[in-house]
Amino acid sequence: MIPFEKEELSSVQQLNEYIMTSLRLMEGCDLNFVKEKFGEKPATQLKTDAIVFINRNWLSETNNHLILTAEGKLFADRIAAELFFD
Q1: CA dist., res. 51 & res. 86, Å (int)
Q2: Cα–Cα dist 17/22, whole Å
Q3: What is the dihedral of CA 62, 27, 65, 60, to 10 degrees?
Q4: Contacts of 70 by beta carbon, 8 Å cutoff, 6+ apart
Q5: Which of 1, 37, 47, 52 is 20 to 30 A from 68, comparing alpha carbons?
Q6: Distances (CA, A) of 31 to 1, 4, 13, 17, 28
Q7: Pairing mode of beta strands 65-68, 59-62
Q8: Over the stretch 37-74, which tens digit does the pLDDT of each residue have?
Q9: How far apart are CA 3 and CA 32, in angstroms?
Q10: Which of 41, 36, 38, 44 lies closest to 14 in space, CA to CA?
Q11: What DSSP line would sit under 13-74, residue for residue?
Q12: Measured in whole angstroms, how far is the alpha carbon of residue 81 from the centre of its chain?
């Protein structure tokens, strides 16, 4: 038998993981997916929290996707950490 570890992520950890990984994709973070998978409240909160980064021109919102701008890519880790849920 091959030894392995299994990691069980809570719903909040899954959401944070999605935020971190999706922001690094060209498609960005899909707020519709967040709403479907994690609920209306997290999707609304994520969109609200993203406004500060949209105003700094680090994120754009296109077709309900949060997408890093060229400048925002320099701050990807910071942006993701600020958008994480507790």
Answers
A1: 19
A2: 8
A3: -50
A4: none
A5: 37
A6: 41, 34, 17, 14, 9
A7: antiparallel
A8: 999 999 999 999 999 999 999 999 999 999 999 999 99
A9: 38
A10: 38
A11: HHHHHHHHHHTTSTT-EEHHHHHHHH-HHHHHHHHHHHHHHHHTTSEEEETTEEEE-TTGGG
A12: 9
Q: Architecture of 11-83 per CATH?
A: Orthogonal Bundle (1.10)
Task: Give dist(CA 11, CA 50) in Å, integer.
Answer: 20
Sequence-ordered list of residues with C-beta below 8 angstroms from that of 50, at least 6 positions apart, any chain: 59, 61, 66, 83
Maximum Cα–Cα distance across the chain:
53
Structure tokens at 60: 């754009």
Confidence (pLDDT) at 4: 82
